[in-house]
UniProtKB/TrEMBL annotation, chains A, B:
GO terms for biological process: methylation; RNA processing. It comes from Corynebacterium mendelii. Gene3D superfamilies: 3.30.1330.30, 3.40.1280.10. This is RNA methyltransferase. PANTHER family: RRNA METHYLASE, RRNA METHYLTRANSFERASE 3. Residues 129-280 form the tRNA/rRNA methyltransferase SpoU type domain. The keyword Glycosyltransferase does not apply. It comes from the Bacteria. One of its GO terms (molecular function) is RNA methyltransferase activity. Keywords: Methyltransferase, Transferase. InterPro entries: Alpha/beta_knot_MTases, Ribosomal_eL30-like_sf, rRNA_Methyltransferase, SpoU_MeTrfase, tRNA_m1G_MTases_N. The keyword Transferase applies.
Amino acid sequence: MADVIARISIADPSDSRLDDFRDLNHSDRRPDRPGGKGLVIAEGVLVVSRLLGSRFGCRAVAGTAAKLDELLADPATAEAVRRTGCRVMEISREVLAAVAGFDLHRGLVASADRPVEHTVEQVIAGASTVVVLEGVGDHENIGSMFRNAAGMGVDGVLFGAGCADPLYRRVVRVSMGHVLRTPFAHTGGTPTTWQRSLALLADHGFTLVSLTPDPRARHIADVLDPPGGVPPAKVALLVGAEGPGLTEHAMRATDCRARIPMAAGTDSLNLAQAAAIAFYERQRSLRG
Amino acid sequence: MADVIARISIADPSDSRLDDFRDLNHSDRRPDRPGGKGLVIAEGVLVVSRLLGSRFGCRAVAGTAAKLDELLADPATAEAVRRTGCRVMEISREVLAAVAGFDLHRGLVASADRPVEHTVEQVIAGASTVVVLEGVGDHENIGSMFRNAAGMGVDGVLFGAGCADPLYRRVVRVSMGHVLRTPFAHTGGTPTTWQRSLALLADHGFTLVSLTPDPRARHIADVLDPPGGVPPAKVALLVGAEGPGLTEHAMRATDCRARIPMAAGTDSLNLAQAAAIAFYERQRSLRG
């Protein structure tokens, strides 16, 4: 029988062993941490279990007795806790609220260090579908995109200039932890590194597709699933920010421009929803 | 030259002519109004112009001079203001904030009475694609669905039991005003009226399709765009609440169950996103 996992009971909110979870509304900026960025914070049983199953080194878990029971009932998760040797702290919901600064109704939270980020080469190696974001600053859109990417066969995500931090607490939550599983990399912040990354994708055989509401663009079904033709073996789907969209500069570096048709006089789709439709179409084109 | 539209300048937040816009965070319940529901409230130039172009009788518009200029610069909108005879009030952003109870950064707001609701028969007459919601209580999902429905060729929306009020202020905003344009109706709150509405759809030649994450369901592309076959002439797409989904009872009343394929170990799509993909697939199947 596996060893029982030791839990440290803590009743004092000022206990320094709870510092990873202090004042969570302001925890995404940590001048004391490398790069000034916060720890990775996972909330709730599902997302914490995904953190424990990921390459992110878990530092600590804190939660109510009931939530810890629920978390550790899964043998793979319990094994991950043993392997990482992370600290497991049992605290009341009231103490957790006093530490976090608000009532964490999910009753469970975990922290992890930011690992060394993947390189662009690592993310695209073996991938057949990647998404490339430019200027996407909205945490909810990024989280939603990771959630959908994981569900619909996207192998990796690349971040160009101007994107928000994918390990921000809100992104982790909205992605339901998938940002901890689906590999991602940054292309680097300069126009040169951006161009180099797009060129690298082309060198690796990717067809680069710009997603745009421009009515002159081709129907995305004709691009990803050409009638009477064969779908591209590898696709890199470029998506820009809601509103401005992709820069002309970025679109010029792609093989073609694709649109999701919208009725005249209506509004373009929300960014994450447009991407979800593109992921769906890509997956549809590849089914047997 | 068209008459200049008279604007009433108001500097006193307690002026009773501004009552439609008082305390907007609590304006969705109005015991003094028919059914205890609030007026329809539209915010911002785009949504207010859509309200003015709709069948909803506009009562009043209030906004800053700059926003009123922007709104009335459109001849069709100015004509609608003249036609409805609604009161146009010019107020400062500070007065607007004092009335509404928070800073309305869009600087423009309009009110309308709730019109007599369409019947189910009216909504489905002439329609080739409708969406039928069951138990969808989330305002943001409903708003998002109307926004996408308008853009992707859905002709009408039917509400079964347990759905939130589609004219709630937040729905109007998230829908970008499309809830004021795309016709909708309620099936009535009893199992009998619900069954009768589904039977009516079938009588009118609609193929009833349940959207479900159940892996045993058919791929939605095979249902809406059968390979080598012809897409159904009329489709009613049933969508349930996030989490529980459609009731088994509802699904049994439909012709088939369709799924959007998701990778194992991931989460089903957000409700509005799943619906958006279904709308996309329906539109894709009908293109020439």
